[in-house]
Specification:
Blueprint (H helix, E strand, L loop, with lengths): L14 H12 L3 H8 L6 H7 L11 E9 L2 E8 L5 H13 L5 E4 L3 E9 L4 H10 L1 H10 L2 H5 L3 E12 L2 E11 L6 H19 L2 E8 L6 E8 L1 H4 L2 H16 L1 H21 L4 H12 L9 E5 L5 E8 L8 H4 L1 H10 L4 H24 L4 H15 L5 H13 L4 H13 L1
Antiparallel strand pairs: 1-2, 3-8, 4-6, 4-7, 5-6, 8-10, 9-10
Helix pairs in contact: 4-15, 6-8, 10-11, 10-15, 11-12, 11-15, 16-17, 17-18
Bound molecules: (R)-mevalonate.
């Protein structure tokens, strides 16, 4: 009989009973069940309060990248990722940048955009004027929702209205600009959008549907810049290779997607380690890369008059220090402590620097020896583990596979068998 994924009342069960159902459904072994039950530093009760239908936790390796100097301050960067090389690459690039004086960063005020969609309006331009004329009242209604944010100097500061053409006719899109201070802001902004929507509907005679934050946070940008001395990176031809790689990504969306993925390898790892919404930042980054219609590179690398490499990158950075998993997840809290940032702006700037470092390391490897050699030894360790290697066997199996340039599970198993015979 086909198995059904409709499990009545599943969400009401305690995690242990849910896990028992999943064990039967998926045929999990006792070892697999034990692995899920062993939630380590995230207690199951806490996990159960964070999301729905919890049966366990999903551990990821967390490491720390070193060598980062940003605006003269030293940082250790906690990173959670399943991808080998990411943390080592970030540390390596940060060291080269350090030789050129470290990263220099800046950011705008932490302003997020909330969108209110108004449809079925008779005359869009008139509706737009009605909204703009009522700006003071709309902002007041929005700010009444969050006296705490106001007391910290944040809140709804301004608004705008845009008429857009769609396949269902013209729509009025109202943008609420909310200074979120040290919060990521989704809750504050969404609450404000929902609160002002009936008034906007009444003003314009239109119908309001969506009331939600935009992840294309063009008013909340973080910028990182650096200079890498040519001697620190391996000379003139390496600098030149990186500039050619940069120009390639700027001109070609196929390359830009991979180039930007490399940047997000670093940023997403820090976001994950610190319990932030990495999807929001990824969505914002890629949308920002396509803001001028053609999708392009987020970073730019050039040569200065000294022959040194100059890098810069700017991207939306909607991160918070308060609220959500950043505060509730015990490991995220420790990661934030290691990072030692004092404001959401400082956090965003560190993330921009990490992204630029990750990009530098990738371009240096790609324009030189390629990434496979470095990747291979780490990849080989994973393959050795997959084949069943334990302890010292892992390194021995990995080393042999790399030297043979044959990194495959079947080969790892053969090597293991030979090792076990000895
Ligand atoms: C791999 O995870 C990331 C890279 O592909 C990034 C890049 O190509 O720039 C190496």
């Amino acid at each position: 009989m086909a198995k059904s994924s409709v499990i009545s009342g599943f969400y009401k069960l305690p995690p242990k009973e849910r896990l028992a159902i999943i064990r039967d459904f998926a045929g999990l072994t006792e070892d697999e069940v034990r692995l899920l039950e062993n939630t380590g530093s995230l207690p199951i009760d806490l996990a159960d309060h964070m999301v729905e239908n919890v049966i366990g936790v999903f551990p990821e390796p967390m490491g720390v990248a070193g060598n980062f100097q940003i605006n003269g301050k030293d940082y250790l960067i906690p990173m959670a990722t399943e991808e080998p090389s990411v943390i080592a690459a970030a540390s390596y690039a940060a060291k080269m940048v350090r030789d050129g004086g470290g990263f220099h960063t800046s950011s705008t005020a932490p302003v997020m955009i909330g969108q209110i969609q108004v449809v079925k309006i008779k005359d869009a331009e008139t509706a737009k004027k009605q909204v703009l004329d009522a700006k003071v009242d709309i902002l007041k209604k929005a700010n009444d929702q969050d006296p705490v944010l106001n007391s910290f100097g944040g809140g709804a500061k301004d608004l705008d209205a845009r008429v857009i053409e769609t396949s269902l006719g013209e729509m009025l899109i109202v943008h609420l600009y909310v200074d979120c201070r040290d919060a990521m802001g989704a809750n504050a902004v969404n609450t404000m959008c929902e609160a002002v929507a009936p008034f906007i509907s009444q003003l314009t005679g239109g119908q309001v549907y969506l009331r939600i934050i935009s992840n294309l946070a063009v008013k909340r940008l973080a910028k990182a810049q650096c200079i890498v001395p040519k001697e620190a990176i391996g000379g003139q031809s390496v600098v030149e290779g990186i500039v050619y790689a940069s120009v390639f990504a700027a001109a070609d969306p196929y390359r830009a997607a991979t180039h930007n993925k490399g940047i997000m390898n670093g940023i997403a790892a820090v976001l994950l380690a610190t319990g932030n919404d990495h999807r929001a930042i990824e969505a914002g980054a890629h949308a920002y890369a396509a803001l001028n219609k053609a999708y392009t590179s987020l970073s730019n690398w050039t040569i200065n008059s000294n022959g040194d490499l100059v890098g810069e990158m700017e991207l939306p950075m909607a991160v918070g220090l308060i609220g959500g998993a950043v505060k509730t997840h015990p490991i995220a809290r420790i990661a934030m402590k290691i990072l030692g940032v004092k404001s959401a702006n400082e956090f965003g700037e560190v993330l921009a620097a990490v992204g630029l470092a990750q990009n530098l390391a990738a371009l240096r490897a790609l324009s030189g020896e390629g990434i496979q050699r470095g990747h291979m030894s780490l990849h080989a360790r994973n393959i050795a583990i997959t084949a069943g290697a334990k302890g010292e066997q892992i390194e021995a199996v990995a080393e042999l596979m790399v030297s043979e340039r044959l990194v495959r599970v079947d080969r790892a198993k053969e090597i293991l068998e030979e090792l076990n015979k000895k």
